């Protein structure tokens, strides 16, 4: 391995200096990119879910073309991988994983959480998914089938969870507040 | 686990170290579900990778290849974004975008900053 | 397989281990290789990541969501599975 004696923090300092010197990336560009990336957060995905629960046309768009639905919510998607949406329905629950690395719908959920990138999550999701869900406090009924989605290539996948009972008459803002990051990956389900 | 681990699919085939679906040694490990905040190092590495991709200097596929080429003990030991830095550096050197000597010199002169 | 594969079509993932032949980058997880699955849906055409990873000219390939019964891979798995796979990894089953 090259530069095996260098600490990665020092390598970053070296990279930063060289990329600036070569006009590839300067400090202002990097700061701007960090700010733009930090701005993406699970609240955006939650707003999409809540709108899908309250707007039939939007729901159809979201299931047909997640990228267009995200754009309709003002989320920048240009140049990003296409977004696919997996609909949970009675009797079928989706769980997203990337067993090869950490592909994650960052445009609508932000940075992937630590657990999503962990070896234990990646190993278990495709082999002991029901037990894995229990680690997140999620106990699915035996008659609910699990469909694991191993995100291996060019799409990024988010789950459209089922709208929980007890939310009749709620508006989209109130609904969005109950949708968590894990609900849109399938490790948890929204509840009230 | 009901399977005999010694006869497990994951152990029978020439699986790469990052190809982790169903791998027995991680099935007994609890998932750490606690939130872990990213630090400034993590954010900067992430941003640099995005810029390199957007400018066509280096693709996400190359980033992954560089991570997958790390020695297994290094892959296991390093944090997520430390793997990225090693991959970015080795790919940029391989492509002649930067030189190993220049990176070393700047890393050392900038050390501790 | 180059012709568009319709949903429901049975396919088998090539049983191949490029890992044993030198540096490579593959997006087909080891655990589906040699396994039989069903085309779930066509996802469009994307550039071949196995070549992009080496900055080589990369042709576009059809990408499919392929559905598998996970229990046939691991009896304890109690789930089915969708994986994005490129046409270059699929054979008629």
How does this structure look, described?
The complex is a heterotrimer of chains A (192), B (113) and C (93). In chain A, the strands form two sheets. Chain A has a two-stranded parallel sheet with strand order 1-4. Chain A folds into two domains: 8-38, no CATH class; 41-184, Alpha-Beta Complex (Nitrile Hydratase, Chain A). Chain A has helices at 8-21, 27-39, 42-54, 56-64, 66-72, 106-109, 114-117, 119-125, 129-135, 172-176, and strands at 83-87, 92-97, 145-150, 156-160. Chain A has ten helices and four strands. The model of chain A has no long low-confidence stretch (mean pLDDT 97). With 113 residues, chain B is an all-alpha fold. Helices cover 56% and strands 0% of the residues of chain B. In chain B, helix 3 packs parallel to helix 6. The N and C termini of chain B lie far apart (49 Å). Chain C has 93 residues and is mostly beta strands. Chain C is 4% helix and 39% strand. Chain C contains one helix and five strands. A five-stranded antiparallel sheet of chain C has the order 4-3-2-1-5. The longest helix of chain C has 4 residues, at 49-52. The radius of gyration of chain C is 13 Å and the shape is globular. Classes of the chains: A alpha/beta (192), B mainly alpha (113), C mainly beta (93). At the A-C interface, strand 3 of A face strand 2 and strand 4 of C. Strand 3 (145-150) of chain A pairs parallel with strand 4 of chain C.
User: What is the CATH C level class of the largest domain in chain A, in words?
Assistant: Alpha Beta
Which series of helices and strands of chain C comes N to C?
EEHEEE
Mean pLDDT of chain A: 97
Strand order of the largest sheet of chain A: 1-4
Regions with little confidence, pLDDT below 50 for 5+ residues of chain C: none
**Chain oligomer state:** heterotrimer
Largest sheet of chain A: 2 strands, parallel
Provide the CATH topology of chain C. Answer: SH3 type barrels
Along the chain, the helix and strand elements of chain A come as HHHHHEEHHHHEEH
> Shape of chain C from CA axes?
globular
User: What is the mean pLDDT of chain C?
Assistant: 96
Helical residues, percent of chain C: under 10%
CATH class of chain C: Mainly Beta
Our measurement of the CA-to-CA distance between the termini of chain C, rounded to an integer number of angstroms, reads 11 Å
Could you tell me the strand content of chain A as a percent range?
Answer: 5-15%
Supply the number of structural domains of chain A.
2
* Strand segment count of chain C: 5
CATH architecture of chain C: Roll
Number of helices of chain C: 1
